[in-house]
Amino acid sequence: MTEEKKPEERKKRRTATEAAGRVGSMTKAMLANVPQAKGEGRPIAYSFICCCYDEIIRAMDITPHWVENYAGICGAKRDAQRFLERAEAENLSRSLCTYALCGLGFDAWREELGGEMPPDAPWGGQVKPDVMLGSGQMLCDPRNKWFQAAQHYMPDVPTYDLNLPWPPYEEDYDYREVQDDYVKYMVAQLRGLVEFLERHTNRKMDWDRLSELVDLTDRTWNLVHEAYELRRAVPTPMGTGDAMNTMVPLSFMMGTQQGYDFFKELYDELQQKIARKEGVIPDEKYRLLWGGGLPSWFALTDFNYFNSKGAVFPAETTYRMVEALYNFDIDFARITDPLEHIAWRWLKFWTCRYDKTRQRPGSHPDVERLIDYIEDYQIDGVVMHEAFSCRSWHVGLIWQLNLLKKIYRDIPSLVLESDIIDISSYNEADTRARIDAFIDTLEAVKSRAG
User: Fold this and answer.
1) How many Å apart are CA 199 and CA 31, to the nearest integer?
2) According to the model, what pLDDT value does residue 392 have?
């Protein structure tokens, strides 16, 4: 007798690239490495993406436990609700970041069970860490408080809050006047992190190894940029749906040879697909930009629905947290301190469009990024997703879209509304109906353009 499949197994998003199809097994292996490291006595660190400490913890042989990734897996498996409800039972509001709620609900349940995993925990669950590495940065507000709240269940686990600012964009001054001060401050923060880790893990920093990993990350950044640029081709060989898979090695495997090798294989595959004129779909009609917002991890098949209507996504702003370092106005070769190198890389990523923005009065770097992708990837329309529980990243999306249309051109747009892992916020029929209406608009605009 054939065993009935679970609901999450009935609908799986179809990938356009072989590389994206391999990410699931890579993610499982990455998660399986955490309890293995724990059993071998290696330190475990609760970690966030895009926090500049990837190479630092790897150089010290500390295993990262990516909490946002695990919450996303729970969402994709449609198994987050019980952890969200557990967090609500702890008097945490459902209006908070549902990544954080899922993680805190899991931690509360695990500690209630005396350290045992909650029943049927997706992909092995979350183990108790040795340290928790927060990040007070201008990107995600729960990163200041999530791990402080987690200490309610794990009071013996120390936390370090890494502060990573960058100069805000202003039309009336050049950020370079203050950039040295920002870098000096960030280096002090990173050095404080190293001291914290040495104190709480009994590991010493291998500074030569750190320099090697910083160089490996630089080469990976450039390779990711070059691979994603291949998606400019018509038809595009890879869409945003696949990029929501490839974000795993991009966000969780920086500073590893595995991450670099993955993107080399992706680059080669995309080149081959372009040579064969093989696109995401056989008949590409509409080229769309995923202009902002995390996806609903439980509804990634929506990308396949777009594809069924002749629409593809050659580019996205979400999780594309790299640029080609050789385009930055700084000579990284002259920087000998790996911590200073990390700080400059961070600062230049966030400021790399400031000069261009000043050439368009009233614009903003985030909007200039949209314009770059619209022009470079021949975009016909913009799709954004507002996740109700992710305020800090999503709250400005409508403003960006309105400013784009005001200073650049009126381009068809669709703003979807749901959440990242709270499936109760999602209505598939309504979402598909809105996509249908958007496709009709795109067709009407194309028809008028002749």
Assistant:
1) 26
2) 75
Residues of the chain under the 70 pLDDT cut: 1-12, 138, 450
End-to-end CA distance of the chain: 57
Question: Could you tell me the two tokens for 198?
Answer: 């040495």
Q: Are 48 and 162 in contact (CB under 8 A)?
A: no
Supply 124's token pair: 């092995």
**What's the pTM?**
0.94
φ, ψ of residue 64 to 5 degrees: the values are -75, 140
Name the DSSP letter for residue 65: E
Answer whether 70's CB lies under 8 Å from 126's CB.
yes
CB 110 within 8 A of CB 117: yes
H helix or E strand, kind and range, residue 345: helix 338-351
Are 263 and 295 a contacting pair, CB within 8 Å?
Answer: no
Is the torsion defined by CA of 168, 171, 173, 179 positive or negative?
positive
- Beta-sheet pairing, 311-316 with 286-292: parallel
C-alpha to C-alpha distances, 258 to 26, 165, 273, 274, nearest whole angstrom: 10, 29, 22, 24
Provide the token pair at 303: 């990308």
Using alpha carbons, select from 332, 357, 350 the residue that is nearest to residue 173.
357
CA 109 to chain centre: 27
Please report, for the chain, the start and end positions of each structural domain, with discontinuous segments joined by +. 13-449
